[in-house]
Protein 1
Amino acid sequence: MTGPITVDSLNHWFGNGEARIQALFDINLEIQPGKLTILMGPSGSGKTTLLTLIGCLREVQDGNVMLLGKPLRGATPKQYNLLRRRLGFIFQAHNLHQSLTAMQNVRMGLELHKSANTAEFDRACAHLLTQLGLGQRLDYLPAKLSGGQKQRVAIARALVGNPAIVFADEPTAALDKESGQKTVELLKRLGQVRGTTTVMVTHDNRILDLADRILRLEDGRIVHDTASTIHRP
């Protein structure tokens, strides 16, 4: 079965002319549905560049990426926007609206879903925030929340629309060990129950045991893949 993400001979560059630098080299990859895949590697290894390319946040320059059965190379802005509606994004910067409560911030993740009524929206938001340990802070403004709590609100916002794929860049960096573990366990459970696929960039060694697959990048190349146990120096 073809996975929700297929990458074929992907290359990427930054800059122009003599300043042009290649960031990714001949990346080939298929990610299966419902799995938690972790991208690891030192700073500058290309892991965030790869995440943003397969997550519709950068245009594919060379090679091919199929996302949820749709080719990204040459896709129009409208096609990109339609795909993004089926994705969830979690970043290290929480980007919450300071004038909105935790509940209201999470509800923003449901704005594109017009089929449910207000009561259903509120139940979904409250349930997810409670799962993330914020059941007593639904009506708190971001100024009244700690850094870790703000990050958990951002995680809830990304997940509440039931995305097909979640892209996460250092989602546990601002969380303590217990909160980070619970967050990744939730992502893992969504994969098992709903078939949600998660691709995560992390340096957090505390959560590696939860991964279905770990890819290590160095100098823009995949050098180790636990799915194949192939190691290339």
Protein 2
Amino acid sequence: MSEDPIVAFTDGAAKGNPGPGGWGAIVVTPDGHVTELGGGAAHTTNNRMELCGAIAALEQSAAHDAPLAVYTDSSYVIKGITQWVWSWRRRGWKTAAGEDVLNRDLWEALSALVEARGRERIDWRWVKGHVGTPGNERADQIAVAFALQRDAALYTGPVGSYALAILDLPERAGPPERSASGTARAPKGKPHAYLSVVDGVLMRHATWAECERRVKGRAGARFKKAMSPADEAAILAGWGIGASRP
């Protein structure tokens, strides 16, 4: 068994929620092959599309004998597949309140794939959305394109020819905590800077929108959020770039 994991990014979107929706997934195998996947539905919800992206990633990975790391910004997917689904199954697909579980068909499909692969072989990793993580941003682009019925120009090929630094992976984090009212708590701290490298030239940006405009469509571009000067220095060191300011 390979020690290097398969890396997957997944996302989902629904315009109107419910409304036209799409999902996106990117799978990178240890041998350096990238596969982009996407699909959509005319009338759906964001949660259903998030689940479809995760299902597609596991299906695409099924033939590869390696651990799997799945990155998603959906706490619904992560908490559902790691905590809730097993209780739902024991209760005959009922919630603790005795109500029918929403999206049961997709939860059954996803949990079957997890069981077939082995729970211990899948690492579900939450990633904060829209902060410049290349895989998360691209999965979102694919999902939105399918929701709007636009061409997503899906890529299949070697990672060396891929337009994004897909293996610039985010630091490990858990889904945001929920308050007693069920709303997400605001994240602590303001980003120090957004960093981008295009054609070997480093720039710092005050906003993600500014950073995104620079890197969008640029082959080999790198970009990431830094929360502090020390975080920035660590990111630049990981990219093999000195800490001098652009």
Protein 3
Amino acid sequence: MINVRFYYKEGCSLCIAAEEMLNGLEEKYQLDIEKIDITSDDEIYELYRYDVPVIELEDGSVFHGRIKRKEILQRLNELKNKKTD
């Protein structure tokens, strides 16, 4: 299981695309996705309002804005391989 925090905002087209990408990878990589709406907390909102969507992996890797599938896949493969070693 790979823990993922997904920060998003309702109505954000980049967030929708990132969520769809994560959902497509969820089963293959056994992702445990925690969705966090940045508007639910003022501190989180101030931190991420210009960066959403934000995907944070359990190893501290962070992807934001126009997230490239290739970059996420590379990092997920590395994490998956570490867990199977």
Protein 4
Amino acid sequence: MIKLDRRLILNFDWTLFILVLVISGVGLLNIYSAGFSLTDFRQTPLYIRQIQWILIGVAGMAVAFLVDYRFLSRHAYIIYGISIALLLLVFTTGYATRGSQRWIAVGGFTFQPSELVKLTIILALAKYFDRSQSGRNYRLRELLIPSLIVLIPFTLILKQPDLGTGLILIILFFSIVFFVGLDWRSLLLAAAGGLTLTPIGWHLLKDYQKERIMTFFSPERDPLGSGYHIIQSMIAVGSGGIFGKGFLKGSQTQLKFLPEQQTDFVFSVFAEEWGFLGGVILMVMFFLLILWGLKIVLHSKDYLGALVAFGITMLIFWEVFINIGMVLGILPVVGIPLPFLSYGGSSMVVLMTAIGLLMNISVRRFILQS
């Protein structure tokens, strides 16, 4: 399972490691600022707790780096089954907050199983498509099993309810399907089916979820209610100007006008304090991270490694794209964290572990070729 090889150290992906640590460091400073106005001296400050999660995440990264990803793939369905069991456990022993039941208490920490599912879905789909390589594009009937792999946790997550994470699972599924290849006639049929089922999907949404979508098209229709989040977010981003107001000097943040400023709207905090220039630099760092992930996909020595690396890269890409689009008002608010910047232990640990897998795939190409 864990076999130390000096080539793992000699070919260690320092670029990826340092890039992730730099982004996480930026996020830590941002959380310090976001939590500055929320400080409750009776509790541990948010940035201290985030440091704890980063350290746990680095430990998870180390394990994921050392364990051969092919070993993880052989046990992918077992890992997937454990994640489904944890999702079911949420409904019996989990606790609810703000109308959602998503967390399980583990010792003095809380854990969100739906974050783990993002990674286990990638491993399970990679295992399936690696073993069923057909040499041609897949048809819809050949996607029944991978569809079930995604739909089971998707249904459980929607019941929590957590629309944002559910959407990420669906987007990941389609991203991986396009990567492995989809018959164009099946693509047209799937598009037609999606349009047909749209009214049914709308009917299944909760009232507050419908309200979020309506608010996206017209946030001013309820400026003190459902439109408040996005209006305050756009004010914060816009008020940052070119160079920003400076660290700890964002008025929207420090005066507590910006809701969920340490989680979903953490980019608004950053843009207000560091301005357009800071936002561009941050997005360039994310772009380099995603580009580096795609480089690992291209250089992978086996199809399995390419699938896992692609899935992880797409997970980071879509979470960045949707979160920033959300806070800028060009996408509906669906509650998706910004990777390595948003406060939250489950997301940080899972993403750090995913980065460990990326480094695993990156370095083992030097071992697999010999």
